[in-house]
Amino acid sequence: MPLNFDSSRFGPLEIDADAVIEFPAGLIGLGGAKYALVATDPDAPFAWLHSVEDAEIALPVTNPWLHYADYSVELSDADTERIGARNPGELDVWVTVRAASELADFSCNLRAPIVVSKGRGHQVINEAPDAPVRAPLFPEPAAVQAA
Amino acid sequence: MLIITRKPGEKIMLGDDVVVHVMEIVGNSVRVGIQAPRSLPIYREEIWDAVRKENQAAAQATPDSLPTPARPAA
After folding, report:
1. Sequence ranges of the domains in chain B
2. Which residue, A6, A21, B39, B48, could crosslink A55 as a Cys pair with Cβ 3.0–4.6 Å?
3. Is B54 close to A13, i.e. CB distance below 8 A?
4. Could you tell me the CATH number of the domain that includes residue A123?
5. Is the CB of A29 less than 8 angstroms away from the CB of B71?
6. Domains in chain A: how many in total?
């Protein structure tokens, strides 16, 4: 069953109702209970985690392993219980992206990844060492061509 | 803000479901235990604040601000 919602960035959007991700605790500082991953270009390195309740709220997200191949997420026992997934294979992990005018200033939040399991999403605190809130997204800007 | 004085071993109730247990004081640190429903996330405030700011900054992005501007699959 399709679900229609508005986006201040993209105009009216239609997604499959099954694609709605419920965030029982919202996103930290932004709230919201229902989001959807809006894929733009399938080849683009970013998707948008878009509120289906508020047309204004959307965050670019990316797959952390595209940028940090050795990235790891360690959860507290409380968070592991809250998510309720035993098998890491059942989880999708995204990190939020902070855009900037220069590629070298783009960053992603390795400290608070968004973990999605069975239609539920949780922004969790990663207990792993070396997981900064602002990790450079393009550590070697010379290797990246601006679009 | 409500200010309450507690001794080690004493507790504070937040509603019926959340217990804050003042466990011990060592030097200038207080060890606190928190019992809460598992649906309630608990954060150290400075981490919560950093993530809150980061989420709000990320939410300022527009499609044009990303390196590969793309249109949604409508």
Report:
1. 11-60
2. A6
3. no
4. 2.30.290.10
5. no
6. 1
pTM for the complete prediction?
0.87
Convert chain A into a string of H (helix), E (strand) and C (coil): CEEEEEECCCEEEEEEHHHCEECCCCECCCECCEEEEEECCCCCCCEEEEECCCCCCEEEEECHHHHCCCCCCCCCHHHHHHHCCCCHHHCEEEEEEECCCCHHHCEECCCCCEEEECCEEEECCCCCCCCCCCEECCCCHHHCCCC
Supply the range of the domain harboring residue A39.
2-138
A71-125 pLDDT, tens digit per residue, is 999 999 889 988 887 777 889 999 999 999 998 999 999 999 999 998 999 999 9
- Nearest-CA distance from B21 to chain A in Å? 17
The model's pLDDT over B11-70, given as tens digits with 9 standing for 90+, comes to 999 999 999 999 999 999 999 999 999 889 999 999 999 999 999 999 999 988 887 644
Of B42, B48, B57, the CB nearest to A28: B48
* Residue A147 domain-assigned (yes or no): no
Give chain A positions within 8 Å (CB) of B66: 44, 46, 60, 97, 99
